[in-house]
Amino acid sequence: MIKSKVGIAWDRVPSLILDPARIPPEVTVKGVSWSGDTGRPTLFGPGRTDRVTLDAWRSTHRLQKLAFDMACALTRELVQSPACQVPAQALFPQILKLVERSWRRRIECYPTTDRLDVFMNPLLRLGNGDLA
Predict the structure, then answer these.
(1) pLDDT at position 4, please?
(2) Which residues contact 47 (CB under 8 A, 6 or more apart)?
(3) What is the pTM of this model?
(4) Alpha helices in 20-120 (DSSP H)
């Protein structure tokens, strides 16, 4: 039941580790060619290899905007719950503070990762426990 104030038991919230070994921040891609011997796809052959990184995504997104969007989505979901008796305008500032605190204190970044990465879909699902 949500009556007036929202809180989190921080001692029970695990950290989310942004590990480039699980979701790499950069990959090398190449168009697929077809092997003449077997007829199977192969990466060997003509064509250039491209490097794809998260830099473009990171440069177009601000951490504050993503936190605001996440707080909006969480507030919308909580307000629709029958257990919530708090109006959205009172709930949103509390949720926003919790979201900001969680990405400041509960996200561990390895080199080549960034706190922004947590708002990308695979990592967002990982943070919610959907991925193993």
Answers:
(1) 76
(2) 30, 31, 33
(3) 0.70
(4) 55-60, 63-80, 88-105
Q: Are 113 and 17 in contact (CB under 8 A)?
A: no
Amino acid, res. 112: T
Taking 3-state DSSP, the helix, strand and coil percentages for the chain, each rounded to the nearest 5, stand at: 45, 15, 40
- Rounded to 5 degrees, what angle do the CA atoms 81, 83, 84 make? 75
Residue 127 near residue 118 (C-beta atoms within 8 A): yes
Task: Residue 48: give the domain boundaries.
Answer: 26-60
- Same domain for 125 and 79: yes
C-alpha to C-alpha distance for 36 and 44, rounded to whole angstroms: 11
102 and 112 together in one domain: yes
Tokens found for residue 4: 């007036």
67 and 55 within one domain: no
Count of domains observed in the chain = 2
Looking at the structure, tell me whether residues 51 and 111 fall in a common domain: no
Q: What is the mean pLDDT of residues 80-101?
A: 91
43 backbone dihedrals φ, ψ, rounded to 5°: -90, -5
Position 131 scores a pLDDT of 32
